[in-house]
Amino acid sequence: AWIFLPRSPSRSVSEISMAEQLAAALAELGQQFADGDFVLDARFEDCHSAIEISLTERLGDLGKKIHAGRSRNDQVLVASRLYLRAQLERINSLCASIATASLDRAQADALTPMPGYTHLQRAVVSSVGLWFAGLAEAFIDNASLARDTAAWLNANPLGTAAGYGVNLPLERALTTEKLNFDRMQVNPMYAQNSRGKFELQALTAAAQALLDCRRFAWDLSLYTTAEFDFVSMPDEYTTGSSIMPNKRNPDVVELMRGAYGVVQGAMAELQAGLSLPSGYHRDLQRTKGPMIRGLVIAVDTLELTDALVRDLTLNTEAMAAAIEPAMYATDVALEKVADGIPFREAYRQAMDNPDALASRSPAESLEARVSPGAAGNLQLDQLRARLDQL
Amino acid sequence: AWIFLPRSPSRSVSEISMAEQLAAALAELGQQFADGDFVLDARFEDCHSAIEISLTERLGDLGKKIHAGRSRNDQVLVASRLYLRAQLERINSLCASIATASLDRAQADALTPMPGYTHLQRAVVSSVGLWFAGLAEAFIDNASLARDTAAWLNANPLGTAAGYGVNLPLERALTTEKLNFDRMQVNPMYAQNSRGKFELQALTAAAQALLDCRRFAWDLSLYTTAEFDFVSMPDEYTTGSSIMPNKRNPDVVELMRGAYGVVQGAMAELQAGLSLPSGYHRDLQRTKGPMIRGLVIAVDTLELTDALVRDLTLNTEAMAAAIEPAMYATDVALEKVADGIPFREAYRQAMDNPDALASRSPAESLEARVSPGAAGNLQLDQLRARLDQL
Amino acid sequence: AWIFLPRSPSRSVSEISMAEQLAAALAELGQQFADGDFVLDARFEDCHSAIEISLTERLGDLGKKIHAGRSRNDQVLVASRLYLRAQLERINSLCASIATASLDRAQADALTPMPGYTHLQRAVVSSVGLWFAGLAEAFIDNASLARDTAAWLNANPLGTAAGYGVNLPLERALTTEKLNFDRMQVNPMYAQNSRGKFELQALTAAAQALLDCRRFAWDLSLYTTAEFDFVSMPDEYTTGSSIMPNKRNPDVVELMRGAYGVVQGAMAELQAGLSLPSGYHRDLQRTKGPMIRGLVIAVDTLELTDALVRDLTLNTEAMAAAIEPAMYATDVALEKVADGIPFREAYRQAMDNPDALASRSPAESLEARVSPGAAGNLQLDQLRARLDQL
Amino acid sequence: AWIFLPRSPSRSVSEISMAEQLAAALAELGQQFADGDFVLDARFEDCHSAIEISLTERLGDLGKKIHAGRSRNDQVLVASRLYLRAQLERINSLCASIATASLDRAQADALTPMPGYTHLQRAVVSSVGLWFAGLAEAFIDNASLARDTAAWLNANPLGTAAGYGVNLPLERALTTEKLNFDRMQVNPMYAQNSRGKFELQALTAAAQALLDCRRFAWDLSLYTTAEFDFVSMPDEYTTGSSIMPNKRNPDVVELMRGAYGVVQGAMAELQAGLSLPSGYHRDLQRTKGPMIRGLVIAVDTLELTDALVRDLTLNTEAMAAAIEPAMYATDVALEKVADGIPFREAYRQAMDNPDALASRSPAESLEARVSPGAAGNLQLDQLRARLDQL
Question: Nearest C-alpha of chain D: how many angstroms from B335?
Answer without folding.
Answer: 13
